[in-house]
Amino acid sequence: MTVQTFDNYSLIENVLTDAQINTLIEWWDNKEYLLDADGNPEVRDRNYWELGLDLKQKIESNIRQTEIIALPLSTFSWLNTTFNNIFTAVHGSSLTIEGPTYFNKYTTGSFHSLHNDIKTDEYPNRKYVCSIQLSDASDYTGGDLQICKYINDLISTAEYQTPTRVKASAIIYDNRAVHNVTEITSGTRYSINECAG
Fold first, then answer.
1. From CA 164, how far away is CA 171, in angstroms rounded?
2. What's the whole-model pTM score?
3. Which CATH number is associated with domain 3-16+71-196?
4. Where are the domains of the chain?
């Protein structure tokens, strides 16, 4: 794995094959939605979702609009190996993977506003985040991952960098750095995210 280093993040290209990406998308497509009492997909109006459910969940809050599901670490051994290899390549040693992997689908109008992924007692293995792009850049407009540079626990730079949108690229950054996904204006963007520490 060849690591490219930028001010705000690291990048590794071609971390998954097309066949592996297709397997992940098929896994997503075969999952059911969490339904409300009327049998329609339940829509969460705040940035909350249940990790323990084997169901896709819709979030439509003022800070995040996405469809999401937890992908258990035991689902695909090759994906665990990929994440371990990525974190080792960037940081030189094996890290503890947080799990489960967050699988997101962004469609027109979807976004995730500025936030960071802070280490807590509930999430002790948050030191770095890895986001892997599963869609071709031409599949959607908008939907850019933007990463500010972490300075300290109170400050990230106001300036951000926008990593590549190339399919199968892994973007690795400090979990404390403020970041966001801009609004999708057309198309569909799939991505998976994992933390380690």
1. 8
2. 0.94
3. 2.60.120.620
4. 3-16+71-196
